[in-house]
Fold:
Amino acid sequence: MGNSKCALILSDFLDYLSVVKGKSDNTLKEYRLDLITFFNFIIKRKCLKISHQEIDLELLKTITLSDMYAYMNFIKNERLNGASARSRKTASLRTFYNYLTNKIKVIDKNITLELESPKIPKRNPIYLNFQESKKLLENIDVNEKFFSRDYCIVVFFLNCALRLSELCSINLNDIDWDTNTLNIVGKGDKERVIYLNNMVLTSIKNYLKDRNSYKIKPEFQNTLFISSRGNRISNRAIQLIIKKYAKDFDKNITPHKLRHTSATLMFKHGKIDIRTLQKVLGHENISTTQIYTHVDDEGIKNAFNSNPLNFE
Structure:
C-alpha cells in the first residue's frame, strides 16, 4: 500500500466512519472538507504542483508536527477560523491519523497525539426571555401569505428546542396524533421523541388547513413544512424567515438561538433537571447541556437568601 493515493485512503476512511462509526452524512462532509483543506495547504507549503487527489502515502509520511501547527496558524490568520472551527479541524486530523496508524496501519507514528487543540472560550448561549419570545410571535403578521406556516415554525423552535435540520426534515407521518408526539432523527442519526404541547398542536392544525391549498409537488406530499414552490422548505429559507420577524431585536436571532431560548425557558421556568434537558435536546454529552445552567443564577441567589438563618 506504499504508493496508495491519498484520495483512495480518504474514501476508505469516510466509508469506515459511515459504516463502522455510524457518522451522519453531514459529519462525513465536514471531515472530507477539513482534510482536503489540510492536503491543499500541505501541497502549497511544500511547493508541489499536484492536486490533493495526487497526494500519496509517501508524502503523508513526510508531514511533521511543525507542518500541522503551520496549518493551524493558516486557518486562524488566513481563513479566519475561530477556536471552535479550529478545534473541529484538529479533531478531524486526529481521527484520520488514528485510522492510518491503528486501523489500517500504514503509518508508524500518530503525530497528531502531540497536536494540541485550541482552547474554546466558554460562552453563555444567547436567547430570548419569555417576554421577548412572545414579542417574536406577535411580530408574525396574520396578513402574511404564509402566516400559519411561519407561525408554526417559530412555535416549534420555541417549544420543542429543535435543531434547524431537524425541523426541516419533519414529515407528516413522523407525528403520532394518538400520543401527541413527534419522532425525530437528530445529530448522529440518533432518534428521540418530542412531546407536543397544546400550543404546538394547535399551530400545526391551523397550518395544515392552509397547507392543503399549497401546490405541493407529488414527492413532497408527506413533508410538513412546504416552500412557496411546493418543495420541502430549505434551511436557508427558514433562516430568512426568522431574520425577517426578529429584525427589531438587538440580538442577532437565528434558529439555533431559538433552540437555546426553548432550552433556557424549560430549564428556568419548567424547573427540569439537567439530565432531562440533555434528553430533550438530544445531546450526547452532559457537558454540552451544562451551558444552560447559567440561567438559574437568580434561583441560586434566592436559595441563599431563603436560608432560615438569613436574619439580622
The longest strand covers residues 181-185. Residues 130-298 form a domain with the hpI Integrase; Chain A fold (CATH 1.10.443.10). The first helix runs from residue 6 to 19.
